Amino acid sequence: MTSDEVVSVGPKNFDGFGLSQLLLKRIKDEIRILKPTKVQAACIPEILKGRNCIAQAPTGSGKTMAFAIPMVQKWSKDPHGVYGLVLTPTRELGHQIKDQFNFLGGNSCKVVVITGGVDYQKQILELVSRPHFVVATPGRLLDLVTNGGEDVKRVFKNLRFLILDEADRLLDEQFDDQMQYIKKLLPVKKQTLFFSATIADHDEMKQLLIKFSENTDEPFIYNYQEETDCNKVQEKKATAESSDESSRPLLWKQNLVQKFVTCPRDFKDGYLMELLGSIKHDNSPPNIRSMIIFATTCRDCKVLSLLLTEMGFSNVSLHSNIDQKSRLKALSDFKSSQITTLIATDVASRGLDIKTVDLVINYSVPMPEDYVHRVGRTGRDTQKGLALTFVVPPRDIQFLENIEKYIRENLTEMKVDERKVLHILTEVQTKKRMADIAVLDPNPFAERAKKKLKLTN
User: Fold this and answer.
1) In this structure, are residues 173 and 33 in contact, taking their beta carbons and an 8 Å threshold?
2) Which of 63, 144, 176, 306 sits 20 to 30 Å CA-CA off 248?
3) How does pLDDT run across 38-49, given as a tens digit for each residue?
């Protein structure tokens, strides 16, 4: 697709895709989706034709169903072995993708998730039992196929689909060695699909797809910003938008209010506690059912979680230093609204679809691409959402401006009453120091007790 090409809108309802009646029934009656989103309408027909695909669409626009529906449709006509492999950067996204395949495929469809934090031998047995679809993080999958023996290596010999969900993340340097090794294990003849909300350069991504799939056929490229009508194409020519601009991500701006909170560095925790207190006691901002607070590091998550608990705000945390059972429990409690505040690193920033999230707070200013994925956890579908980013001047001003340039929208400032912040600041700072100490040394008296015991024995 050229930069001036208009993407066909496609069928206006699922009946126009030629799907099986059983699959249509599951989509309409069980999942309760009445009409396809734009990315689904554009991509499903092309994937059913057998084309490789690159798709960029906003968070919450239905990208998972855009590749899962045609995969399940094709699998239902030829159900054998491992039919499709979906690679994803995070464990939590992997489990969510599995749920959607299970909904679409029904009881006859066997889906397994291969991620870290789960018994190694159990996952080898799951792989060699020939499930229909495998959803995996690259690191754990590579570990299994490298050390699991020849039976595991042969699992993917008849693979028909490879999907990179959050492709931009999976194709960066962190995953490069893993992805190249996994590629060698897979058959050349297969459909390869790249999906993400943030693709910086579509031409570069096209070349990566051709190289990765070893297929020189022209892939179908769906870019949300170029899918409207000829008027938009003409407008784009008239305004001479650069190709770089056209590949920037769009958010569901009609549903999402984006603001920033300016605060002094030493007052940031006080501002956060005052904001949470106003939500809890004064319902301001209104109608906040649940929220995600994003922190940069695992340690920040731990400290914030302890601080919130000490200040009377129940919460769960989600980061890579928590074992898998605890991660799933935290996510389950949050999804079911037993706990309405989740404190997380970027393991929760991609793909998680929880309709009750009305507020996202960036405790620190993230990189622009991460910002798009984080704030995309709210304002999904027709829901309204609010995203707040804490900004400490002057150091964070340039970071904020980078985000505004990236999303092509200026954030507005939200004021927090500093008099109220000062009223609670001493208490907050004291408890923050206690949380810091607790994270550095969870039990400072344990070591002393052990030494004393040795001396007395």
Assistant:
1) no
2) 176
3) 999 999 999 999
